[in-house]
Design goal:
about 240 residues; 3 domains; three-stranded antiparallel β-sheet; 8 helices; 8 strands; elongated
Length: about 240
């Protein structure tokens, strides 16, 4: 009977000592309060009472940064939201160096987002999103390295502008489109004038070309359904009449 009890106790201790962690997890082991390293994935054993463990997820984690009120360098108040992607690369550091790395990354991302965007003008913030993303990621990655966390990507999700600023930007964009349209129209007029000048020079050298142009115009008009008859008069005849007068 005593042997059976001993065997049962040993079996219970053995079963309770077995630990299994998944492929994307690591177990940080503490022995009498001192960290001895990380184990996993797979099955391993812990000494009862003296060993404890904390599981750490190594998969990519997404943190959505809620809209933050930011005053840009040119004194425009906007709301900016972002998304941060990070993962644990050192399970031991993520447990012993920071109390809650998820919360720490979230709070650090919020303050960094306000700080970086507050140093930029609105136009630059809207046109250089990739630069802003890279700068925020660099700052977060620098601070989180000591926590055993790697920030892989930061993306500005949305930039909300005040209604009056949206209307002002719409008027600015419309004025810019009008300016471009006028410039294109003026360039077209200039190019047309250049071509007309070249054509006039050619016709002045070869007067017969003007008569051919008259005939071509008459042919184009006669192809349409109308009753108008046009008789071209040679310019030489008009010139000779004007000289006689």
């Amino acid at each position: 009977m005593f042997t059976f009890v001993i065997v049962a106790i040993v079996l219970v201790i053995f079963l309770t000592s077995i630990r299994i962690v998944k492929e994307y997890e690591r177990a940080v082991i503490f022995r009498l309060g001192r960290v001895i390293g990380a184990k996993g994935p797979g099955i391993f054993f812990l000494w009862p009472i003296i060993d404890t463990m904390i599981k750490v997820n190594l998969r990519l984690i997404t943190v959505e940064i809620q809209p933050q009120d930011v005053i840009t360098k040119d004194n425009v108040t906007i709301k900016i939201s972002a998304v941060v992607y990070f993962k644990v690369i050192d399970p031991v550091k993520s447990v012993i160096q920071v109390n809650n790395y998820f919360y720490a990354i979230e709070q650090l991302a919020q303050t960094t987002l306000r700080s970086v965007c507050g140093q930029m003008e609105l136009d630059r913030l809207l046109s250089e999103r990739e630069h802003v993303n890279a700068e925020i990621q660099s700052i977060l990655d620098k601070h989180s390295d000591s926590w055993g966390v790697k920030v892989t990507l930061v993306e500005l999700k949305q930039i909300d502008l005040p209604q009056d600023m949206q209307r002002a930007m719409a008027r600015q964009a419309e004025a810019e489109r009008d300016r471009r349209a006028k410039i294109i129209s003026a360039e077209g007029e200039y190019q047309a004038a250049q071509k007309l000048k070249e054509a006039a020079q050619i016709i002045s050298e070869y007067p017969q070309a003007l008569q051919l142009r008259y005939l071509q115009t008459l042919n184009e008009i006669s192809a349409k359904n109308n009753t108008t008859t046009i008789l071209p008069i040679p310019l030489d005849l008009l010139r000779s009449i004007s000289q006689k007068e």
